Amino acid sequence: MLGAIIGDIVGSRFEFRNRKSKDFQFLHKNCFITDDSVLSIAVCKSLLQFDGDYEKFEKIVTRNIWEIGRKYPGSGFGGRFAMWLRSDDPKPYGSFGNGSAMRVSGCGYASDSEEAVKRLARITSGVTHNHPEGLKGGEATAVAVYLSRIGKSMDEIALALSKYYEFDFTLDDVRPRYQFDETCQGTMPVAIKAFLESTSYEDAIRNAISVGGDSDTIGAITGAMAEAYFGIPQALRQDALQYIPKDLLEILEAFEEKYPPKII
Question: Rounded CA gap, 80 and 7, in Å?
């Protein structure tokens, strides 16, 4: 879970000023959490309240995303999502933006069944991003986290993700021409590739940032996968926690107490 948040924090200062290189200071004084972290934690709060009733879970997710999102109005929400937050009766609006994939990582921890993980992911995505591409992005991210968490190999994870997206390229191939893209279709292949080409958690995040584009969200998606696969060094964890507001940190700590993270 924290893997997505660190990826978001590291990418925050590069979203509109891309760094097409892996050479940069990792956690900088100008870094901050964005909507990716806020909504990831809202989903985690919802998962802590999940009792096996999927219909009720949809209502829980909607409420928590709505309530927590409204507490952080300046965290970088897209226009349509900001309108959703302002509604007194928020409904899905057919989005295929990458917001479904950036907030879903907790679902990969909340069940020991791949099918249940997929179902949870589709619910957390579908309360806003109910377009087939939005649902697919959320599901693919959660599946990658789940498979990484249960010890599948990179080749096995790549095979599973190839059922969702094509990524028959290298980051070196696409880095020079890749541009800002807020869609799942444009974000997910490069986020997946940043993970598949990595050798450690930090290397995965450096890959994600180096491709450019929507840096905080690519960092969050790649970071979610990389944490479950590699684990996060204890020193990096402690440094990153300082960027998270107290109310959100309390939710994260409760989630990690129930679903222990991989720490190296």
Answer: 24
Question: From CA 115, how far away is CA 32, in angstroms rounded?
Answer: 34
Q: What is the pLDDT of residues 240-252, one digit of tens each?
A: 999 999 999 999 9
Q: Taking phi first (over 0 means left), then psi (-120 to 50 degrees means alpha), and beta for anything else, what does residue 178 get?
A: beta
Name the DSSP letter for residue 215: H
The rounded distance, in Å, linking the Cα atoms of 240 and 93 is 33
CB 144 within 8 A of CB 159: no
Homologous superfamily of 2-15+33-258: ADP-ribosylation/Crystallin J1 (1.10.4080.10)
State the DSSP code for 88: S
**E-assigned strand segments in 53-152:** none
DSSP 114-134: HHHHHHHHHHHHHTT--SHHH
Alpha carbon distances (Å) from 164 to 123, 137, 167, 215, 228: 18, 8, 10, 21, 19
0.85 surpassed by pTM: yes
Q: What is the pLDDT of residues 153-199, one digit of tens each?
A: 999 999 999 999 999 999 999 999 999 999 999 999 999 999 999 99
